[in-house]
Description:
Distance between the termini: 13 Å
Structural class: alpha+beta
Helix content: 40-55%
Radius of gyration: 11 Å
CATH architecture: 2-Layer Sandwich
Largest sheet: 3 strands, antiparallel
Strand order of the largest sheet: 1-2-3
Number of helices: 3
Number of strands: 3
CATH class: Alpha Beta
Number of domains: 1
Order of helices and strands: EEEHHH
Mean pLDDT: 97
Amino acid sequence: MRFSYKTTGTCSTQIDFDYEDGKISGIRFTGGCPGNLKAISKLLEGADAKYVVDTLTGNLCGTRGTSCADQLAKAVKAAMEKQA
């Protein structure tokens, strides 16, 4: 399933990814820091969704109270809940 998530509190405005059989792939951020977000996408290609949520939840960017990585964790958690 292709999943789109509107972010809040970050420079990126949306995250799109595929979620299938508990794995995520095809992660694409709209906006944000291109180099860092491309790296995150490559590192997490085919990763277990629970691993992504456990690893990235609470990762903050300065004083924003969230980050693109934290928003990805929220997006993946939402996808997992939708599939359950």
